[in-house]
Design goal:
This protein is of the alpha+beta class. It is built from 15 helices and 19 strands. The chain has 2 domains: 254 residues, FAD/NAD(P)-binding domain (3-Layer(bba) Sandwich); 153 residues, no CATH class. A 6-stranded antiparallel beta barrel has the order 12-15-14-13-16-17. A 5-stranded parallel sheet has the order 6-2-1-10-19, covered by helices on one side. The chain has a 3-stranded antiparallel sheet with strand order 3-5-4. The structure holds flavin-adenine dinucleotide.
Length: 426
């Protein structure tokens, strides 16, 4: 997958994830000679992993709603999406022979759900357009006169400064797939402002199960029996101390140390920021989202004769298994016999979260190169000719296809900007 040339490249891309590949595509389309370097033996490893659970390429919702997923960055990302939004990305995929469909949640997937055929077709098209791939080259930073230092299989190697450079080095999640955030050092030295990298779309560790308790986390018995199991359907409600609110129905998974999964990821930015500010985040679970409070109280109060409480909850409300176990994690024996307390807890079971899981385990990364130190072409103001794209930039979004769309859209913008810049240097 590697070729070499002693000629300086006109344009160089470092990072062969979706952002870097898109930048390379735009550079090649503009007629530039493009060399792409990546630390790993092959490109697009995270993209391929994303395809394991069904590649969620983008989302079909209206543009306005789509933009709002980027929260305070919505406005800054608008010009990227003007280049490549959900419908445009579907069309782009169709150009590679990959048809897509809209799932029941509005998420968009390739018809076969996989990432590998798309990546294969994309690489073929890039090679045909003249993009040359240099694998196993980990960028270390700059040498004199803008030359680029790489750790390569044969040792350290220096590549002459290209006319334009696109860095698309990813965030810091799943470092085993290539992106480890080590770019922060050289970029800070080059004058880039970098917001601290934080976990996004991540799981959490549980704090004390009861207010004031010294011990944190689930009971050993609970972990042994339930870790890895989903809680569903459930409504997660979070009311932050600074007024931010989240409420949604879905499902999540119990882990050995806390919680993770789609519903938790959706709330994770708020939960993470709450913990950073106040030391913990308190959320509530509605274990019976399809019953109102009065119904739950009436059922709990209903005389149960000789039946046990567990049997009663199961037959009257369908509470059993993991949901029942959750009750016993937060209520003691006396509390669970208190019908009002029990009914209240079924509708508002408190969970205290103590910490977000490390960024290495997260689906994505928040923080990164601040957009304020880039121009509208995503060129570093302090370092003309150097462009940045993808998850290494300071934006975040929930899962739902927004991460790939914004990564690729920013790659498009940076690639076009770099092409124009390189041409001006010629
Ligand atoms: C389990 C999982 C599932 C996901 N599923 C989805 C999904 O379904 N939909 C969605 O929208 N998003 C999903 N994502 C997120 C999505 O994959 C990322 O947001 C996206 O890959 C970011 O693209 P990128 O090009 O910016 O970075 P990356 O994909 O991380 O690519 C960066 C590239 O740069 C290379 N690199 C890094 N540092 C160096 C260096 N110093 N020198 C040379 N090369 C370097 C890396 O090897 C890598 O190839 C998922 C993520 C995970 C972890």
């Amino acid at each position: 997958m590697s070729s070499n040339s002693s000629l300086p490249a006109q344009a160089l891309v470092i990072g062969g994830g979706p952002a870097g590949l898109m930048a390379a595509e735009r550079l090649a389309a503009a007629g530039l000679r493009v060399d792409l370097y990546d630390a790993m033996p092959s490109v697009g490893r995270k993209f391929l992993l994303a395809g394991k659970g069904g590649l969620n390429l983008t989302h079909s919702e209206e543009r306005e709603a789509f933009e709002q997923r980027f929260a305070e960055r919505a406005q800054a990302l608008r010009p990227w999406l003007d280049r490549l939004d959900g419908p445009a990305l579907r069309q782009w995929a169709a150009g590679l022979g990959i048809e897509t469909f809209v799932g029941s949640s509005g998420r968009v997937f390739p018809t076969d759900m996989k990432a590998a055929p798309l990546l294969r077709a994309w690489l073929q098209r890039l090679r045909a357009a003249g993009v040359r791939f240099h694998m196993r080259h980990r960028w270390l930073g700059w040498a004199a006169e803008g030359a680029l230092r790489f750790a390569a299989p044969e040792g350290e190697r220096t590549v002459p400064a290209p006319a334009a450079l696109v860095l698309a080095l990813g965030g810091a999640s799943w470092p085993q797939l290539g992106s480890n955030g080590a770019w922060q050092g050289p970029l800070a030295e080059a004058g880039a402002e970098i917001a601290p990298l934080r976990a996004a779309n991540c799981g959490f560790d549980l704090g004390p199960r009861r207010e004031g308790a010294a011990e944190a986390g689930w009971s050993a018995f609970f972990v042994e029996r339930w870790a890895g199991q989903p809680v569903k359907p459930v409504r997660l409600v979070f009311e932050g101390r600074s007024g931010r609110r989240f409420e949604r129905q879905g499902e999540f998974v119990v882990t050995a140390r806390g919680i993770e999964g789609s519903l938790v990821y959706a709330a994770s930015a708020l939960l993470r920021d709450e913990i950073a500010e106040f030391g913990e985040a308190l959320l509530h679970l509605d274990l019976l989202p399809n019953h109102d409070e009065a119904q739950v109280l009436a059922e709990v109060r209903r005389p149960r004769g000789p039946r046990s409480l567990s049997t009663h909850l199961k037959s009257r409300l369908g509470i059993e298994g993991l949901k029942a176990a959750l009750l016993y994690e937060v209520l003691d024996k006396a509390e669970i016999q208190d019908t009002e307390r029990l009914a209240r807890t079924l509708k508002r079971l408190p969970l205290r979260l103590a910490a977000a899981r490390p960024v290495a385990e997260a689906i994505s990364t928040a923080g990164g190169v601040r957009l304020e130190c880039l121009d509208e072409h995503l060129m570093l103001c302090q370092r003309p000719g150097v462009f940045c794209a993808g998850e290494m930039l300071d934006w975040e979004a929930p899962t739902g296809g927004y991460l790939l769309t914004a990564s690729m859209a920013s790659g498009w913008v940076a690639g076009e900007g770099a092409a124009a810049y390189a041409k001006r240097q010629a």
